[in-house]
Specification:
By secondary structure, the protein is of the alpha+beta class. The protein folds into 2 domains: about 250 residues, BirA Bifunctional Protein, domain 2 (2-Layer Sandwich), CATH 3.30.930; about 90 residues, Anticodon-binding domain (Rossmann fold, 3-Layer(aba) Sandwich), CATH 3.40.50.800. Helices cover about 40% and strands about 20% of the residues. It contains 16 helices and 16 strands. The strands form 3 sheets. The chain has an 8-stranded mixed sheet, with helices on both faces. Strands 13-12-14-15-16 form a 5-stranded mixed sheet, sandwiched between helices. A 3-stranded antiparallel sheet has the order 2-4-3. α1 runs antiparallel to α5 and α5 packs parallel to α10. It is elongated and about 90 Å long. Bound molecules: adenosine monophosphate (AMP). Adenosine monophosphate binds next to β6, β10, β11 and α12.
Length: about 425
C-alpha cells in the first residue's frame, strides 16, 4: 500500500494485460507503416486556442472536458483531448504538406478529457490515430476505413459494426442545419436541449434519451439533403466499401463530438461494451487546416481507443493476458555459477531466445519455482559441482527430464531444441 493512488479516472496498465495493450499499438503501427503512414509524436499539451479553434467552442470536449491550466508564465495550456488538431498544427508548422500529398501520419499516446467516469470511459485514455492530410479523394476515406477494419480483424476482434454517415460540406450543411433547426424548434424539448438546437442542432439527433429519440422519427436527414458533390463523394465511398465487402450500416443520425468533420464520418461500435460502445471513429475534416490559419488541405483520419479495444477483445473471449516471454530460465547455485548463467542468458538473448534467470542468490527450491512461473520450456541448472565437471544440467520443464550438456555447447544445444 502507498499513501497515494492513481487519480480518479486514470489507471495503471499492469502485466499481464499491458503486453496486450502494447500489442495493439504495435499491430496497428506496423499495418499503418505498410500502408505508407509515418509515425508522428506531438506534445502532450498545446496552446488552449488550438483546441478551441480546431475542435470547436460549442463541443462538449472544449466547453466541459478540457484539462486547461496556466503555466508559470501565465500561458493557457491544455492537455490534449484528441489528436487531430495537434497533428494538423504540426504539419502546417513544419510545412510537411510541401513534401507529399497526402501527408500520411499515425500516432499513439495518452489523451485527456474531464468526463464522467464509467466502464470504458476514463479521464486519461490512449488512442492510436491515423491522418491523411491533403487529399480530397474519396478513395482515401475508404483506405482509412479499410485500415481500421484490418487492425481490428488482425487482433481477432470481429463483433463490431461500422456506422457510416456524411455530414455534407460548407455548402449543403448550413442549408440542412437550418431545415433541421426549424423541425427541432417545433418539438417538446427541455430548455438545455432547446439551447442546443440553436448552437449545435446536429448534436440533438445524437441525444440518447428515448423521449427525445421518439420525436425524431420524422427529422430531416442530412443524407437526403446533400449537395451533388457530397452525394457523389458519399456514393463513391459506399460503393467502394461494397466492392471490398466491408459491411457498414448507414447511420443518418450519426454526428461526432468534434466540430471539424465534413462529408464522411464513421464510428466502430462493439455491442459487447455497454454504454461506451465506440471503439474507434473518425471522418473527413476538409476545413481544419484553414481554420488553423493554413492553406486548404482536405483530410481524413480516425482514432481507435486502446482501452476499449481491449474490452472488446475481452468481451469476445480473446485471451488478453500475456505473460512475459521466456523460453529458458537460468538457475545457479553459488557465485561462480551465477556469473556463468548470466553469460548464458546474455548469449541466448543475443540469439533472439527469450531468457531470464533467478537473481538474489535464490535457493534451488525457490529458483525452480520461479523457473516454472516464468513459463520457460527449459531451465539451465548449474551447481558448483557441475561447473567443476564442465557441464550444465538442461532440464525440460514439461517432462522433468534432465541431461548434462558441456558448458560450451549449452547455447547451441538450446538454439537447436528451440528452433
Ligand atoms: P473520439 O476522439 O471521441 O472520436 O474518440 C475516439 C475513440 O477514443 C473512441 O472511439 C473511444 O474508443 C476512445 N475514447 C474517447 N474518449 C474516451 C474516454 N473518455 N475513455 C476511454 N476511451 C475513450
Amino acid at each position: 500500500m502507498s499513501t497515494f493512488s492513481a487519480p480518479r479516472g486514470t489507471f495503471d496498465m499492469l502485466p499481464p494485460y499491458s503486453e496486450t495493450f502494447n500489442r495493439i499499438r504495435i499491430q496497428f503501427g506496423l499495418e499503418l507503416r505498410d500502408a505508407g503512414y509515418q509515425y508522428i509524436e506531438t506534445p502532450a499539451f498545446e496552446d488552449t486556442g488550438l483546441f478551441v479553434r480546431g475542435v470547436g467552442e460549442s463541443t462538449d470536449v472544449v466547453s466541459k472536458e478540457m484539462y486547461t491550466f496556466q503555466d508559470r508564465s501565465g500561458r493557457s495550456l491544455t492537455l490534449r483531448p484528441e489528436g487531430t488538431a495537434a497533428v494538423v498544427r504540426a504539419v502546417l508548422q513544419h510545412n510537411l504538406q510541401a513534401q507529399r500529398h497526402p501527408v500520411k501520419l499515425w500516432y499513439f499516446g495518452p489523451y485527456f478529457r474531464y468526463e464522467a467516469v464509467q466502464a470504458g470511459r476514463t479521464r486519461q485514455f490512449h488512442q492510436i490515430g491515423a491522418e491523411a492530410i491533403g487529399s480530397a479523394d474519396p478513395l482515401v476515406d475508404v483506405e482509412m476505413i479499410a485500415l481500421a477494419v484490418e487492425g481490428f480483424q488482425k487482433l481477432g476482434v470481429s463483433d463490431f459494426r461500422l456506422l457510416l454517415n456524411s455530414l455534407g460540406c460548407k455548402e449543403c450543411r448550413p442549408v440542412y442545419r437550418a431545415k433541421l433547426q426549424e423541425f427541432l424548434r417545433g418539438l417538446d424539448l427541455d430548455e438545455e436541449t432547446r439551447r442546443r438546437v440553436e448552437i449545435n442542432p446536429l448534436r440533438v439527433l445524437d441525444d440518447k434519451r428515448p423521449e427525445v429519440q421518439a420525436q425524431l422519427d420524422d427529422a430531416p436527414l442530412i443524407t437526403d439533403n446533400l449537395c451533388e458533390a457530397c452525394a457523389e463523394h458519399h456514393a463513391f465511398v459506399t460503393g467502394m466499401l461494397d466492392e471490398l465487402k466491408i459491411a457498414y450500416e448507414p447511420a443518418p443520425k450519426l454526428v461526432r463530438g468534434l466540430d471539424y468533420y465534413v462529408r464522411t464520418i464513421f464510428e466502430f461500435v462493439h455491442d459487447g461494451l455497454g454504454a461506451q460502445s465506440a471503439i474507434g471513429g473518425g471522418g473527413r475534416y476538409d476545413g481544419l487546416a484553414q481554420d488553423l490559419g493554413g492553406p486548404e488541405l482536405p483530410s481524413v483520419g480516425w482514432a481507435v481507443g486502446i482501452g476499449r479495444t481491449m474490452l472488446a477483445m475481452e468481451a469476445e473471449g480473446l485471451d488478453i493476458e500475456m505473460p512475459a516471454d521466456c523460453d529458458v530460465y537460468g538457475v545457479a547455485l553459488g557465485e561462480s555459477a551465477r556469473r556463468e548463467i548470466f553469460k548464458f542468458v546474455t548469449a541466448l538473448r543475443l540469439a533472439d531466445i527469450p531468457a531470464d534467470m533467478a537473481f538474489d542468490h535464490k535457493k534451488l527450491k525457490g529458483a525452480m519455482k520461479a523457473a516454472a512461473q516464468s513459463g520457460a520450456r527449459y531451465a539451465i541448472v548449474l551447481g558448483e559441482r557441475d561447473l567443476a565437471e564442465g557441464v550444465a544440467q538442461l532440464k525440460d520443464l514439461a517432462t522433468g527430464e534432465q541431461t548434462p550438456v558441456a558448458l560450451d555447447a549449452v547455447v547451441d544445444t538450446l538454439k537447436e531444441k528451440l528452433q
